[in-house]
Amino acid sequence: MYAAGCWHLVSGHLDGPWEDVVTALVRETREEAGIVVDPADVRAAVTVHHRSPAGGARLGVFFEVKRWQGTPEVMERRVCDAMEWFAFGNLPEPMVAYCRAGLDAYRAGARLAVHFQEPGDPIAYDSDADRTVLVPDPGSREDVPEEVRAFAEQAVGRITAWRDVSRAREESRVWRAHGAEGGTCYVKIHQNGRFHQREVGAFRGWVPSLGAAAPRLVATDERLRAVVLTAVGGRSLHGATYAPEQQQRIFHRIGQLAAAIHTSAAPRPAAGALPLGKLGRAPGRSPRPPRARGCRLHPRHCREGHRLARLGGGPHPWRSPAPSLGKSFVGSAVVGIFAR
Description:
Layout: E1 11-13, H1 21-33, E2 42-51, E3 57-65, H2 97-108, E4 112-116, E5 132-134, H3 146-156, E6 159-164, E7 173-179, E8 184-189, H4 193-204, E9 217-221, E10 226-230, H5 244-264, H6 299-309, E11 333-339
Parallel strand pairs: 1-11, 2-4
Antiparallel strand pairs: 2-3, 3-11, 4-5, 6-7, 7-8, 8-10, 9-10
Helix pairs in contact: 5-6
């Protein structure tokens, strides 16, 4: 039996030339996992052009499915021993190599990958024989300078996928990099030496006091003006919509994080500012806490954050790690249909 003892996604082949890939996905998930998927809930994830060690080539089409009916369970016990959920950061071993290629491409945000194995390569994934090559999307800028690649790989090991996540800022570049063993980091080139020194100084100084809510500096190169940073769990709130009670919890956590930022960095008085003892305030009003530079929260959220930061009394503010704003993975299943 092919790939006996290896972990694999729920998957299968087209049932003849008359079956399309979405119909095949709906059929295979019902037959193998006992769940019902609505075709309207199927989302394209990534396509992998795969060649096995024996030389046969085919296309593997991976999909994302976030909704279904029923509870996944093993339906074909003669060909499947177990079924489990795994996080991307803790994938099981051994795993079929082209299955791992599809998952790595999906994590990297790629829409197409080539995975051509050589004769003698193992069927199971082996980081030393990983053949995954991501095909850049139109308009992407994955042209990582060779010296930056060498710097990053010296710090974190072999990197198999790069994704340009730069913002529109001249001469500043940021890549999300995925390692051969599944780890993720960010590689950044600053636009000038002043920015580089300022950010490195912050990461070596006050940023560690934020704990798990902030990235960690892994390596720095002053000549390249480059840094390697750890990834932080969570997802962007940009463009997201939430129910009022969820928004309240989110702003509550943002307030805590803003308070931690305010109290972690040493205060820098503005040029020409009066000494603190000479600042006046209206009788009966408590002073408004300072807002973090670049903070766009409504002042009441910053005030709430500062109030929370000082619960428990004592002369020093609470400085335990601020909570994360979410998980890095929203429960989704990725399934594959392979066309000969």
